[in-house]
Model the fold of this input.
Amino acid sequence: MTRRLGCSFCIAVGFLALLISDLRYVRAEKVPSEKKVLFESINRRDDVVWKVASDIWAFAEPGYQETKSSAALRDMLKASGFLIEPGIGGIPTAFTASVGSGTPVIGILGEFDALPGLSQNAVPYREPAKVGGYGHGCGHHLFGAASASAAIAIAEQIKAGTINGTVRFYGCPAEEGGSGKVFMAEAGAFQDCDAVLHWHPGHENSAGDRSTLARMAVKFRFHGKSAHAAAAPEQGRSALDAVSLTNYAAELMREHTPDQSRIHHVITAGGRAPNVVPDFAEVYYYIRHPDGEVVRQLYERLVLCAKAGALATETRLEIRFEGGIREILPNNALSQVTMQNLREICDLEYDGEETEFALKLQATLDSPGPLTAIREIEDRSGTVGKGSTDVGDVSWQVPTTGFTTACWVPGTPAHSWQAVAAGGSSIGRKGLNLAARVLAASAWDFYTKPELLREGKLEFQRRIGDQGYRSLMVDGQKPPLDYRNAPKR
Done:
């Protein structure tokens, strides 16, 4: 019985692969011939790009500390003739890489930072490569590598004289809570761009003029007095009590916040022994909303909650602002281009081993999706995502658009070990390759059809109106290059 079921499974997998291969052939026929040279370039260096992505996946470096990851991308781009400008915005791991001259200037964003606590091997069961270590749960190892590959393909055509203008790759660190692109934007890194492209790994393929949630982050640090909790409690002033009161006040505030607000926190320090009154405690907050100005107002109210906690407990409050990022300013004119290219180019398919891997991984998911979803394209136009990204600040300075490709098994949530596992497998590799081709094809359209850029700029000006760009950073904020360093206690 088991053997018959196994044979039936193999036949079904083979039939599915054949069906998808037919679909891939049909879609390939839709691709304009002039773009095929870009795809040939991307496919030719696929092994090299995957090696870089795999190395960054293994490095798994936190934000502002991505020295090896940044260097790997810089080295690949430099070898392809790009002019490298390091240290953008005062950040050692931020850089630009350019080829060409004059206009149009098309920017392509690339990220490479990892997340804490998500270390994982490329296997369909929980197996950390390093217990408690970092892992690429958001797929930024794929993000940076695919964007660099697309930039190289475009650069080759600029050098050949087929297209005119400048292509610029942006090495963007610390997206995960570090707001790296905000500092790059404030330094003027994007001001001369005519359009900026980005993408993101996901569990499905999607495009459209989608927005995101603006976000501000802050750490409230309370300094009190330690004492014996039993023998001399009256001599202590509990920093942990200050955190507790701050959190309670924030919970009460939730009832009186605008719809779609999100306020969440973790206690990052709260004492080490119950018989010692904690003289130091820290709570880390995120505040989100689709409108950045609402986030700014909520932040000011949350600060009042922390001040109340300090006042009531006779502790000293230290506010450590951790950055603010704007919501994405959508651009339908540009997003239609990426949508069309994604629909024409998408050829994702799983072979037998990948299907087996995907099914085993899905057994660990709460809401797995059909594997056929990797062939579908979702239109997210007019929607607001529940996440936040510092791409938002770029979009308030220059017309910007992005998309996602299926680099994870359908149903996989971001920031999970399952995302890390799929991102380190051939499933992630195929999504990377597709993303690089869509980026290159979309950039080609912008270089060869000036009317697309004109329409994108007109829409950008209409959406931004008279308000202009206003960062959610506090005045004088510098890149928090030591933001992960906890106080020695």
Notes: Residues 1-28, 483-489 have pLDDT under 50 and may be disordered. Residues 214-324 form a domain with the Alpha-Beta Plaits fold (CATH 3.30.70.360). Residues 2-30 form the longest helix (29 residues).
